[in-house]
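Q: I have 503 residues here and want to know how they pack in 3D. Can you give me a structure?
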Amino acid sequence: MTTLATTGSDSGSAPGGALARDALAVLQPGFDGTTAPDWVRRLLGEGLASVALFGRNVVTEEQVTALTGQLRAERDDLLVAIDEESGDVTRLDVRTGSSFPGNHALGAVDDPDLTRGVARELGRRLAACGVNFDWAPSADVNANPDNPVIGVRSFGAATDLVARHTAAWVEGLQSTGVAACTKHFPGHGDTNVDSHHAVPRIDVDADTLYERELPPFRAAIAAGTRAVMSAHILVPALDAERPGTLSRRILTGLLREELGYQGLIVTDGMEMRAISGTYGLEHGVVLAIAAGADAICVGGGLCDEATVLSLRDALVAAVRSGELPEERLSDAAARVRELARWTAEARGGAADVAPEPEIGLVAARRALRVTRRQTVAPVDGPVFVAQFSPEANIAVGDETPWGVAAELRRLLPGSASGSFAGADAGAAALAAAEGRRIVAAVRDEHRHAWMGAALDALLAARPDTVVVEMGVPQAPPRGALHIATHGAARVCGVAAAEAVVAG
Protein backbone atom coordinates (compact mmCIF):
# COMPACT_ATOMS: atom_id res chain seq x y z
CA MET A 1 0.00 0.00 0.00
CA THR A 2 1.24 3.48 -0.79
CA THR A 3 1.64 5.49 2.35
CA LEU A 4 -1.20 7.99 2.66
CA ALA A 5 -0.48 11.62 3.33
CA THR A 6 -0.91 12.89 6.85
CA THR A 7 -3.85 15.28 6.86
CA GLY A 8 -6.55 16.80 9.02
CA SER A 9 -6.15 16.50 12.75
CA ASP A 10 -2.60 15.17 12.46
CA SER A 11 -1.04 18.08 10.59
CA GLY A 12 1.24 20.50 12.36
CA SER A 13 3.75 20.07 15.12
CA ALA A 14 3.32 18.15 18.36
CA PRO A 15 5.46 16.76 21.17
CA GLY A 16 7.97 14.37 19.66
CA GLY A 17 7.19 15.34 16.09
CA ALA A 18 5.75 13.21 13.29
CA LEU A 19 7.34 9.99 14.51
CA ALA A 20 5.72 10.25 17.94
CA ARG A 21 2.39 11.18 16.33
CA ASP A 22 2.55 8.07 14.15
CA ALA A 23 3.38 5.96 17.20
CA LEU A 24 0.34 7.34 19.05
CA ALA A 25 -1.86 6.89 15.98
CA VAL A 26 -1.41 3.12 15.91
CA LEU A 27 -2.51 2.65 19.52
CA GLN A 28 -6.11 1.85 20.49
CA PRO A 29 -6.00 2.32 24.28
CA GLY A 30 -8.68 1.98 26.89
CA PHE A 31 -9.16 4.14 29.95
CA ASP A 32 -10.95 4.15 33.26
CA GLY A 33 -14.15 6.00 33.98
CA THR A 34 -17.40 7.05 32.34
CA THR A 35 -16.18 10.48 31.26
CA ALA A 36 -13.16 11.41 29.17
CA PRO A 37 -9.97 11.63 31.26
CA ASP A 38 -7.79 14.70 30.82
CA TRP A 39 -4.82 12.60 29.70
CA VAL A 40 -6.81 11.02 26.87
CA ARG A 41 -8.09 14.38 25.70
CA ARG A 42 -4.57 15.77 25.72
CA LEU A 43 -3.13 12.84 23.76
CA LEU A 44 -5.86 13.20 21.14
CA GLY A 45 -4.29 16.55 20.38
CA GLU A 46 -0.85 14.94 20.15
CA GLY A 47 -1.73 12.29 17.57
CA LEU A 48 -3.83 9.60 19.27
CA ALA A 49 -6.41 8.58 16.68
CA SER A 50 -8.38 5.84 18.47
CA VAL A 51 -9.75 4.93 21.86
CA ALA A 52 -11.45 1.76 23.07
CA LEU A 53 -14.49 1.39 25.31
CA PHE A 54 -14.94 -1.52 27.69
CA GLY A 55 -17.67 -2.50 30.13
CA ARG A 56 -16.19 -0.26 32.83
CA ASN A 57 -16.87 2.77 30.59
CA VAL A 58 -20.56 2.00 30.05
CA VAL A 59 -23.52 2.80 32.29
CA THR A 60 -26.24 3.86 29.85
CA GLU A 61 -26.42 4.63 26.16
CA GLU A 62 -27.00 8.30 27.00
CA GLN A 63 -23.84 8.32 29.09
CA VAL A 64 -21.82 6.69 26.28
CA THR A 65 -23.16 9.29 23.84
CA ALA A 66 -22.02 12.06 26.16
CA LEU A 67 -18.61 10.38 26.56
CA THR A 68 -17.99 10.04 22.83
CA GLY A 69 -19.12 13.64 22.40
CA GLN A 70 -16.46 14.74 24.89
CA LEU A 71 -13.83 12.80 22.99
CA ARG A 72 -14.85 14.12 19.57
CA ALA A 73 -14.69 17.65 20.85
CA GLU A 74 -10.92 17.06 20.85
CA ARG A 75 -10.74 15.15 17.56
CA ASP A 76 -13.69 14.90 15.21
CA ASP A 77 -12.38 11.99 13.10
CA LEU A 78 -11.73 9.79 16.13
CA LEU A 79 -12.10 6.02 15.98
CA VAL A 80 -14.11 4.87 18.99
CA ALA A 81 -13.78 1.08 19.22
CA ILE A 82 -15.76 -1.38 21.30
CA ASP A 83 -15.73 -5.16 21.78
CA GLU A 84 -19.44 -5.67 21.08
CA GLU A 85 -20.07 -9.07 19.56
CA SER A 86 -23.62 -9.20 20.97
CA GLY A 87 -24.59 -12.45 22.68
CA ASP A 88 -22.24 -13.50 25.46
CA VAL A 89 -19.63 -10.80 24.73
CA THR A 90 -21.37 -7.47 25.21
CA ARG A 91 -20.16 -4.10 26.42
CA LEU A 92 -23.13 -1.92 25.45
CA ASP A 93 -25.45 -4.15 27.51
CA VAL A 94 -22.85 -5.20 30.07
CA ARG A 95 -25.15 -4.51 33.04
CA THR A 96 -28.22 -6.32 31.70
CA GLY A 97 -27.14 -8.90 29.13
CA SER A 98 -27.35 -8.39 25.39
CA SER A 99 -30.46 -7.41 23.51
CA PHE A 100 -29.17 -9.52 20.61
CA PRO A 101 -28.35 -13.22 20.43
CA GLY A 102 -24.76 -14.05 19.59
CA ASN A 103 -23.24 -15.81 16.63
CA HIS A 104 -24.04 -19.38 17.64
CA ALA A 105 -27.74 -18.61 17.91
CA LEU A 106 -27.72 -16.88 14.53
CA GLY A 107 -25.86 -19.83 13.02
CA ALA A 108 -28.47 -22.21 14.47
CA VAL A 109 -31.23 -20.30 12.70
CA ASP A 110 -29.09 -20.09 9.53
CA ASP A 111 -30.93 -17.19 7.94
CA PRO A 112 -28.32 -14.74 6.60
CA ASP A 113 -30.97 -12.05 6.19
CA LEU A 114 -31.74 -12.33 9.91
CA THR A 115 -28.04 -12.14 10.75
CA ARG A 116 -27.70 -9.09 8.53
CA GLY A 117 -30.67 -7.48 10.23
CA VAL A 118 -29.41 -8.15 13.76
CA ALA A 119 -25.99 -6.67 12.91
CA ARG A 120 -27.66 -3.68 11.26
CA GLU A 121 -29.74 -2.93 14.36
CA LEU A 122 -26.66 -3.36 16.56
CA GLY A 123 -24.75 -0.97 14.30
CA ARG A 124 -27.58 1.55 14.46
CA ARG A 125 -27.42 1.52 18.27
CA LEU A 126 -23.62 1.80 18.31
CA ALA A 127 -23.64 4.68 15.83
CA ALA A 128 -26.29 6.50 17.85
CA CYS A 129 -23.88 6.32 20.82
CA GLY A 130 -20.98 7.69 18.79
CA VAL A 131 -19.18 4.35 18.46
CA ASN A 132 -17.86 3.75 14.94
CA PHE A 133 -15.56 0.71 15.17
CA ASP A 134 -16.64 -2.71 16.44
CA TRP A 135 -14.15 -5.51 17.16
CA ALA A 136 -16.56 -8.07 15.69
CA PRO A 137 -17.63 -10.46 14.23
CA SER A 138 -15.84 -13.65 15.20
CA ALA A 139 -15.22 -15.61 12.01
CA ASP A 140 -13.73 -18.58 13.88
CA VAL A 141 -14.94 -22.05 12.91
CA ASN A 142 -15.60 -23.81 16.23
CA ALA A 143 -13.96 -27.04 15.12
CA ASN A 144 -13.03 -28.01 18.68
CA PRO A 145 -16.16 -28.32 20.88
CA ASP A 146 -13.94 -28.10 23.99
CA ASN A 147 -12.69 -24.65 22.95
CA PRO A 148 -12.65 -22.62 26.19
CA VAL A 149 -12.70 -19.16 24.63
CA ILE A 150 -14.70 -19.26 21.37
CA GLY A 151 -17.69 -21.61 21.74
CA VAL A 152 -20.96 -19.70 21.28
CA ARG A 153 -18.99 -16.75 19.92
CA SER A 154 -18.71 -18.77 16.69
CA PHE A 155 -21.51 -19.16 14.15
CA GLY A 156 -20.82 -22.89 14.24
CA ALA A 157 -18.57 -25.79 13.31
CA ALA A 158 -19.27 -25.80 9.56
CA THR A 159 -17.00 -23.62 7.45
CA ASP A 160 -19.58 -22.69 4.82
CA LEU A 161 -22.12 -21.67 7.47
CA VAL A 162 -19.57 -19.51 9.29
CA ALA A 163 -18.50 -17.90 6.01
CA ARG A 164 -21.98 -16.85 4.88
CA HIS A 165 -22.96 -15.48 8.27
CA THR A 166 -19.67 -13.65 8.74
CA ALA A 167 -20.27 -11.87 5.43
CA ALA A 168 -23.88 -11.06 6.33
CA TRP A 169 -22.85 -9.69 9.74
CA VAL A 170 -20.16 -7.48 8.20
CA GLU A 171 -22.60 -6.15 5.61
CA GLY A 172 -25.28 -5.42 8.18
CA LEU A 173 -22.99 -3.62 10.60
CA GLN A 174 -21.18 -1.55 7.99
CA SER A 175 -24.45 -0.43 6.38
CA THR A 176 -24.74 1.84 9.43
CA GLY A 177 -21.31 3.43 9.03
CA VAL A 178 -19.75 1.37 11.82
CA ALA A 179 -16.57 -0.44 10.75
CA ALA A 180 -16.46 -4.20 11.29
CA CYS A 181 -13.33 -5.96 12.55
CA THR A 182 -13.42 -9.64 11.59
CA LYS A 183 -11.52 -11.87 14.03
CA HIS A 184 -9.43 -13.87 15.06
CA PHE A 185 -7.15 -14.36 12.03
CA PRO A 186 -6.11 -16.97 10.92
CA GLY A 187 -8.75 -18.77 13.03
CA HIS A 188 -9.09 -19.45 16.76
CA GLY A 189 -11.70 -22.20 16.61
CA ASP A 190 -9.56 -25.32 16.90
CA THR A 191 -7.89 -24.49 20.22
CA ASN A 192 -8.17 -25.91 23.72
CA VAL A 193 -6.23 -23.09 25.40
CA ASP A 194 -7.46 -19.57 26.13
CA SER A 195 -4.98 -17.06 24.66
CA HIS A 196 -5.78 -14.70 27.54
CA HIS A 197 -3.66 -17.09 29.64
CA ALA A 198 -1.15 -18.80 27.31
CA VAL A 199 -0.25 -19.33 23.65
CA PRO A 200 -2.68 -21.76 21.97
CA ARG A 201 -1.25 -24.02 19.29
CA ILE A 202 -3.14 -25.25 16.23
CA ASP A 203 -1.48 -28.36 14.85
CA VAL A 204 -3.25 -28.76 11.54
CA ASP A 205 -1.72 -29.07 8.12
CA ALA A 206 -1.82 -26.20 5.65
CA ASP A 207 -4.56 -27.84 3.56
CA THR A 208 -6.89 -28.04 6.57
CA LEU A 209 -6.14 -24.45 7.46
CA TYR A 210 -6.88 -23.20 3.96
CA GLU A 211 -10.03 -25.30 3.59
CA ARG A 212 -11.51 -24.90 7.07
CA GLU A 213 -10.25 -21.73 8.77
CA LEU A 214 -9.68 -19.24 5.96
CA PRO A 215 -12.95 -19.22 3.92
CA PRO A 216 -14.83 -17.10 6.49
CA PHE A 217 -12.07 -14.49 6.31
CA ARG A 218 -12.16 -14.60 2.52
CA ALA A 219 -15.92 -14.03 2.74
CA ALA A 220 -15.44 -11.09 5.11
CA ILE A 221 -12.87 -9.53 2.79
CA ALA A 222 -15.23 -9.96 -0.16
CA ALA A 223 -17.97 -8.32 1.91
CA GLY A 224 -15.70 -5.33 2.48
CA THR A 225 -14.71 -5.71 6.13
CA ARG A 226 -12.83 -2.59 7.11
CA ALA A 227 -10.63 -4.34 9.65
CA VAL A 228 -9.30 -7.78 10.58
CA MET A 229 -8.07 -8.74 14.05
CA SER A 230 -5.12 -11.06 14.52
CA ALA A 231 -5.06 -14.03 16.88
CA HIS A 232 -2.37 -14.77 19.46
CA ILE A 233 -2.12 -18.39 18.29
CA LEU A 234 0.78 -20.48 17.06
CA VAL A 235 0.13 -22.17 13.72
CA PRO A 236 3.25 -24.21 12.90
CA ALA A 237 2.00 -24.98 9.38
CA LEU A 238 2.43 -21.26 8.70
CA ASP A 239 5.02 -20.07 11.21
CA ALA A 240 6.65 -22.38 13.72
CA GLU A 241 8.26 -19.57 15.70
CA ARG A 242 5.81 -16.74 16.28
CA PRO A 243 2.07 -16.46 16.98
CA GLY A 244 -0.17 -14.89 14.37
CA THR A 245 -0.09 -11.38 15.84
CA LEU A 246 3.70 -11.28 15.60
CA SER A 247 4.12 -13.27 12.38
CA ARG A 248 5.05 -11.47 9.17
CA ARG A 249 4.31 -14.70 7.28
CA ILE A 250 0.73 -14.68 8.57
CA LEU A 251 -0.12 -10.96 8.60
CA THR A 252 1.79 -9.75 5.56
CA GLY A 253 2.43 -12.91 3.56
CA LEU A 254 -0.94 -14.61 4.01
CA LEU A 255 -3.45 -11.88 4.83
CA ARG A 256 -2.05 -9.04 2.73
CA GLU A 257 -0.36 -10.79 -0.17
CA GLU A 258 -2.23 -14.10 -0.61
CA LEU A 259 -5.72 -13.00 0.40
CA GLY A 260 -5.30 -9.51 -1.04
CA TYR A 261 -6.62 -7.71 2.03
CA GLN A 262 -5.83 -3.99 2.11
CA GLY A 263 -7.79 -2.74 5.13
CA LEU A 264 -6.71 -2.23 8.72
CA ILE A 265 -5.06 -5.07 10.67
CA VAL A 266 -5.69 -4.82 14.42
CA THR A 267 -4.11 -6.95 17.12
CA ASP A 268 -6.06 -8.77 19.77
CA GLY A 269 -5.47 -7.39 23.28
CA MET A 270 -1.74 -7.14 23.78
CA GLU A 271 -1.91 -7.54 27.57
CA MET A 272 -3.08 -11.13 27.05
CA ARG A 273 -0.52 -13.52 28.48
CA ALA A 274 0.06 -15.17 25.10
CA ILE A 275 1.96 -12.00 24.15
CA SER A 276 2.83 -10.01 27.27
CA GLY A 277 3.85 -13.09 29.23
CA THR A 278 6.17 -14.35 26.49
CA TYR A 279 7.54 -11.30 24.70
CA GLY A 280 6.78 -8.42 27.07
CA LEU A 281 4.20 -5.77 26.24
CA GLU A 282 6.46 -3.12 24.69
CA HIS A 283 8.54 -5.56 22.65
CA GLY A 284 5.41 -7.41 21.56
CA VAL A 285 3.90 -4.18 20.24
CA VAL A 286 7.02 -3.44 18.20
CA LEU A 287 7.06 -6.98 16.78
CA ALA A 288 3.38 -6.76 15.86
CA ILE A 289 3.76 -3.53 13.88
CA ALA A 290 6.88 -4.92 12.19
CA ALA A 291 4.96 -8.06 11.22
CA GLY A 292 2.24 -6.05 9.49
CA ALA A 293 -0.27 -5.03 12.16
CA ASP A 294 -1.52 -1.45 11.87
CA ALA A 295 -3.29 -0.90 15.17
CA ILE A 296 -2.58 -2.09 18.69
CA CYS A 297 -5.45 -3.07 20.96
CA VAL A 298 -4.51 -2.38 24.56
CA GLY A 299 -6.53 -1.33 27.55
CA GLY A 300 -8.68 -4.25 28.56
CA GLY A 301 -6.43 -4.51 31.58
CA LEU A 302 -3.77 -1.79 31.45
CA CYS A 303 -5.65 1.44 30.89
CA ASP A 304 -3.50 4.28 32.15
CA GLU A 305 -1.51 7.09 30.59
CA ALA A 306 1.83 5.56 31.56
CA THR A 307 1.08 2.43 29.50
CA VAL A 308 0.23 4.50 26.42
CA LEU A 309 3.32 6.64 26.74
CA SER A 310 5.57 3.62 27.26
CA LEU A 311 4.22 2.01 24.09
CA ARG A 312 4.62 5.24 22.13
CA ASP A 313 8.19 5.56 23.32
CA ALA A 314 8.94 1.89 22.57
CA LEU A 315 7.80 2.33 18.96
CA VAL A 316 9.78 5.54 18.53
CA ALA A 317 12.89 3.89 20.01
CA ALA A 318 12.48 0.88 17.73
CA VAL A 319 12.40 3.12 14.67
CA ARG A 320 15.45 5.05 15.82
CA SER A 321 17.39 1.85 16.54
CA GLY A 322 16.51 0.36 13.15
CA GLU A 323 14.47 -2.51 14.61
CA LEU A 324 11.26 -1.13 13.09
CA PRO A 325 11.37 0.52 9.64
CA GLU A 326 9.99 4.04 9.79
CA GLU A 327 8.02 3.39 6.59
CA ARG A 328 6.20 0.47 8.27
CA LEU A 329 5.10 2.64 11.20
CA SER A 330 4.10 5.45 8.84
CA ASP A 331 2.10 3.03 6.69
CA ALA A 332 0.33 1.62 9.76
CA ALA A 333 -0.59 5.10 11.01
CA ALA A 334 -1.85 6.05 7.55
CA ARG A 335 -4.18 3.04 7.49
CA VAL A 336 -5.59 4.07 10.87
CA ARG A 337 -6.24 7.60 9.63
CA GLU A 338 -7.78 6.25 6.43
CA LEU A 339 -10.30 4.20 8.41
CA ALA A 340 -11.01 7.21 10.60
CA ARG A 341 -11.79 9.20 7.45
CA TRP A 342 -14.11 6.46 6.18
CA THR A 343 -16.07 6.44 9.43
CA ALA A 344 -16.26 10.25 9.44
CA GLU A 345 -17.61 10.23 5.90
CA ALA A 346 -20.02 7.38 6.67
CA ARG A 347 -21.30 9.04 9.83
CA GLY A 348 -25.01 9.53 9.59
CA GLY A 349 -25.53 6.31 7.66
CA ALA A 350 -27.37 4.90 10.64
CA ALA A 351 -29.94 7.67 10.29
CA ASP A 352 -31.19 5.94 7.15
CA VAL A 353 -31.65 2.60 8.96
CA ALA A 354 -35.14 1.94 10.28
CA PRO A 355 -35.04 0.79 13.92
CA GLU A 356 -35.90 -2.86 14.57
CA PRO A 357 -35.86 -2.99 18.38
CA GLU A 358 -37.51 -6.43 18.58
CA ILE A 359 -35.28 -8.20 16.07
CA GLY A 360 -33.00 -9.54 18.82
CA LEU A 361 -35.82 -11.29 20.66
CA VAL A 362 -37.27 -12.57 17.38
CA ALA A 363 -33.88 -14.08 16.53
CA ALA A 364 -33.48 -15.60 20.01
CA ARG A 365 -36.89 -17.27 19.78
CA ARG A 366 -36.04 -18.70 16.37
CA ALA A 367 -32.75 -20.09 17.70
CA LEU A 368 -34.37 -22.25 20.41
CA ARG A 369 -34.20 -26.02 20.06
CA VAL A 370 -36.72 -27.74 22.35
CA THR A 371 -36.60 -31.47 23.09
CA ARG A 372 -39.36 -33.15 25.10
CA ARG A 373 -38.04 -36.31 26.71
CA GLN A 374 -41.22 -37.45 28.46
CA THR A 375 -44.78 -36.43 29.18
CA VAL A 376 -44.87 -34.43 32.41
CA ALA A 377 -47.07 -31.81 33.98
CA PRO A 378 -46.65 -28.33 32.54
CA VAL A 379 -44.70 -25.73 34.48
CA ASP A 380 -47.48 -23.48 35.76
CA GLY A 381 -46.38 -22.51 39.27
CA PRO A 382 -43.35 -21.15 41.08
CA VAL A 383 -40.10 -23.00 40.35
CA PHE A 384 -36.59 -23.07 41.70
CA VAL A 385 -33.97 -22.07 39.13
CA ALA A 386 -30.63 -23.79 39.77
CA GLN A 387 -27.97 -21.95 37.81
CA PHE A 388 -24.76 -23.93 37.35
CA SER A 389 -22.12 -21.30 36.68
CA PRO A 390 -18.73 -22.20 35.18
CA GLU A 391 -15.80 -19.86 35.55
CA ALA A 392 -16.23 -17.11 32.96
CA ASN A 393 -13.51 -16.57 30.38
CA ILE A 394 -12.02 -13.09 30.22
CA ALA A 395 -13.63 -12.19 26.89
CA VAL A 396 -17.10 -12.79 28.29
CA GLY A 397 -16.36 -11.45 31.77
CA ASP A 398 -18.30 -12.09 34.94
CA GLU A 399 -20.18 -8.80 35.36
CA THR A 400 -22.89 -9.57 32.80
CA PRO A 401 -25.92 -11.47 34.16
CA TRP A 402 -27.16 -14.58 32.39
CA GLY A 403 -29.74 -17.29 32.85
CA VAL A 404 -33.53 -17.62 33.05
CA ALA A 405 -34.19 -16.77 36.69
CA ALA A 406 -35.15 -13.12 36.29
CA GLU A 407 -37.64 -13.82 33.52
CA LEU A 408 -39.14 -16.86 35.27
CA ARG A 409 -39.67 -14.79 38.41
CA ARG A 410 -41.66 -12.40 36.26
CA LEU A 411 -43.64 -15.11 34.49
CA LEU A 412 -44.06 -17.33 37.56
CA PRO A 413 -44.30 -15.09 40.65
CA GLY A 414 -42.86 -16.69 43.73
CA SER A 415 -40.06 -18.47 41.88
CA ALA A 416 -36.63 -18.48 43.53
CA SER A 417 -33.10 -19.14 42.33
CA GLY A 418 -29.57 -19.96 43.37
CA SER A 419 -26.15 -20.26 41.75
CA PHE A 420 -24.05 -23.39 42.25
CA ALA A 421 -20.68 -24.80 41.20
CA GLY A 422 -18.32 -27.60 42.12
CA ALA A 423 -18.55 -31.21 43.17
CA ASP A 424 -21.55 -30.80 45.49
CA ALA A 425 -23.53 -28.50 43.19
CA GLY A 426 -26.32 -31.00 42.54
CA ALA A 427 -26.92 -31.84 46.18
CA ALA A 428 -26.80 -28.17 47.14
CA ALA A 429 -29.34 -27.27 44.46
CA LEU A 430 -31.70 -30.05 45.56
CA ALA A 431 -31.53 -28.88 49.15
CA ALA A 432 -32.12 -25.25 48.18
CA ALA A 433 -35.10 -26.19 45.98
CA GLU A 434 -36.99 -27.51 49.03
CA GLY A 435 -39.19 -29.76 46.95
CA ARG A 436 -40.06 -27.21 44.27
CA ARG A 437 -39.97 -28.01 40.54
CA ILE A 438 -36.44 -27.33 39.28
CA VAL A 439 -35.28 -25.53 36.17
CA ALA A 440 -31.53 -26.12 35.72
CA ALA A 441 -29.59 -23.55 33.68
CA VAL A 442 -26.24 -24.80 32.41
CA ARG A 443 -23.53 -23.46 30.14
CA ASP A 444 -21.43 -25.91 28.11
CA GLU A 445 -22.33 -29.01 30.11
CA HIS A 446 -20.07 -31.12 27.88
CA ARG A 447 -16.96 -29.22 29.05
CA HIS A 448 -17.58 -29.47 32.80
CA ALA A 449 -17.71 -32.88 34.50
CA TRP A 450 -19.02 -31.36 37.74
CA MET A 451 -21.92 -29.82 35.83
CA GLY A 452 -22.87 -33.14 34.26
CA ALA A 453 -22.72 -34.78 37.69
CA ALA A 454 -24.97 -32.06 39.11
CA LEU A 455 -27.57 -32.76 36.42
CA ASP A 456 -27.27 -36.49 37.15
CA ALA A 457 -28.16 -35.80 40.78
CA LEU A 458 -31.07 -33.53 39.92
CA LEU A 459 -32.60 -35.88 37.38
CA ALA A 460 -32.25 -38.91 39.65
CA ALA A 461 -34.18 -37.13 42.40
CA ARG A 462 -36.47 -35.05 40.21
CA PRO A 463 -37.06 -36.55 36.72
CA ASP A 464 -39.39 -33.62 35.95
CA THR A 465 -36.44 -31.20 36.01
CA VAL A 466 -36.27 -28.83 33.02
CA VAL A 467 -32.78 -28.28 31.58
CA VAL A 468 -31.84 -25.07 29.79
CA GLU A 469 -28.48 -25.29 28.00
CA MET A 470 -27.18 -21.76 27.32
CA GLY A 471 -23.81 -22.70 25.87
CA VAL A 472 -22.84 -24.97 22.99
CA PRO A 473 -25.42 -27.82 23.06
CA GLN A 474 -22.87 -30.58 22.60
CA ALA A 475 -24.10 -32.91 25.36
CA PRO A 476 -27.14 -35.10 24.55
CA PRO A 477 -30.46 -33.46 25.52
CA ARG A 478 -31.86 -34.64 28.82
CA GLY A 479 -34.44 -33.61 31.35
CA ALA A 480 -38.22 -33.67 31.07
CA LEU A 481 -37.81 -30.69 28.80
CA HIS A 482 -34.50 -29.66 27.27
CA ILE A 483 -34.11 -26.20 25.79
CA ALA A 484 -30.98 -25.20 23.88
CA THR A 485 -30.64 -21.44 23.43
CA HIS A 486 -27.22 -21.43 21.69
CA GLY A 487 -26.06 -18.55 23.89
CA ALA A 488 -26.58 -16.71 27.14
CA ALA A 489 -27.68 -13.26 25.95
CA ARG A 490 -30.53 -11.66 27.90
CA VAL A 491 -32.93 -12.23 25.00
CA CYS A 492 -31.95 -15.93 24.92
CA GLY A 493 -32.98 -16.15 28.57
CA VAL A 494 -36.29 -14.44 27.82
CA ALA A 495 -37.00 -16.83 24.94
CA ALA A 496 -36.08 -19.87 27.06
CA ALA A 497 -38.28 -18.77 29.96
CA GLU A 498 -41.20 -18.40 27.57
CA ALA A 499 -40.57 -21.95 26.34
CA VAL A 500 -40.43 -23.30 29.91
CA VAL A 501 -43.85 -21.87 30.67
CA ALA A 502 -45.28 -22.93 27.31
CA GLY A 503 -44.05 -26.48 27.96
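Q: Anything worth noting?
A: Residues 404 and 493 are 5 Å apart (CA to CA). The two ends are 59 Å apart (CA to CA).
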